[in-house]
Automatic annotation (TrEMBL):
Domain Restriction system protein Mrr-like N-terminal intervals: 6-90
Region (Disordered): 122-142
GO CC annotation, single: bacterial nucleoid
Name this protein carries in UniProt: Restriction endonuclease
Keywords: Endonuclease, Hydrolase, Nuclease
Length: 311
């Protein structure tokens, strides 16, 4: 008998977490859902291509849907907890959820992306034009379109997990991660050329990157693991710290976003680059910092091979 699909894990996870308002580990939740669904030992032993147990993978996707609906959160690494909204939903909807409610949770939040603070300004000049395929169109879409949809969905899910992990990191660890990200796309001749400075009395400087072997050209970094937006005064203070170092280049990185006034200030001065939470997570995904990727071989007919006119 096959392992239940991920939508069937949604309600068991919702009910288990509702019964544990203080939260529970992902492992405990996996097992509680498996017990509720009555999984056999054979079903528990089934794995996906990566080697992960299928039921744990599907339990994880079910929790992903609850997170995107705003009903649950990763309170800390490997620890799940319903939000106030999620607890209210569970109380207002006694078991069992209707088939329509389960489908709504499983399908309608597939394309929900990272939420920015309401007063955060966009740093991107162009809008994200990637549009998920509607569930009703999946059956008639091509395999390539469905594959692209799956990749988009996986990327969005991992982006959310990355954001949670960044917010849970200590300030010192976050500064280290930021320097790893900057090094991953070419800053510094080697990792040793990126120096972590953060701490009390750092003068607004959390890291220094030497662009050449002699350290003649440097980029100064400030890294803020914040949930509230960064305002113009914060950037002005950082810019003042750069002036104190006689620096020409600075990068201000935050897990949150920047106000419109902060973005306007950065664009009015030379050598100041802003990286918000969305851009930081995308850089980590693109350069595989804190994430790993899996290669799939997609076969495609080589029609030239069968063309006899080519000899």
């Amino acid at each position: 008998m096959p392992v239940p699909t991920y939508d069937q894990f949604i309600e068991p996870i919702l009910r288990f977490l509702a019964a544990h308002p203080e939260g529970a580990t992902a492992g405990e939740t996996h097992e509680a859902a498996a017990l509720t669904l009555g999984l056999s030992e054979a079903q528990r032993q089934e794995t996906i291509a990566s080697g992960q147990a299928t039921y744990k993978n599907r339990s994880g996707w079910a929790h992903d849907r609850l997170k995107r609906a705003g009903y649950s959160s990763s309170a800390k690494r490997g620890y799940w907890q319903l939000t106030d909204t999620g607890r209210a939903f569970a109380q207002a909807n006694p078991a069992p959820l209707s088939a329509e409610q389960v489908e709504h949770l499983a399908v309608n939040f597939m394309s929900v992306k990272l939420k920015a603070a309401p007063d955060a300004a966009s740093l991107d000049e162009s809008n994200d034009t990637s549009t998920p395929i509607a569930q009703t169109d999946l059956a008639t879409s091509s395999p390539q379109e469905r594959l692209n949809q799956a990749i988009l969905e996986l990327r969005t899910s991992v982006a959310g997990d990355l954001r949670d992990s960044l917010l849970q990191a200590s300030p010192t660890r976050f500064e280290h991660i930021v320097l790893d990200v900057l090094h991953s796309f070419g800053y510094g001749a080697n990792r040793q050329a990126l120096q972590q400075v953060g701490g009390s009395g750092d003068g607004g400087i959390d890291g220094v990157i030497s662009l050449d072997a002699l350290g003649l050209e440097k980029v100064y970094v400030q890294a803020k693991r914040w949930q509230s937006t960064v305002g113009r005064p914060d950037l002005q203070a950082f810019y003042g710290a750069l002036a104190g170092q006689k620096a020409k280049r600075g990068v201000f990185i935050t897990t949150s976003g920047f106000t419109a006034q902060a973005v306007e200030f950065a664009r009015s001065v030379e050598g100041l680059v802003l990286v918000d939470g969305k851009r930081l997570v995308n850089l980590m995904l693109d350069h595989e910092v804190g994430v790993s990727s899996q290669l799939y071989k997609v076969p495609r007919l080589d029609s030239d091979y069968f063309d006899e006119s080519l000899g």
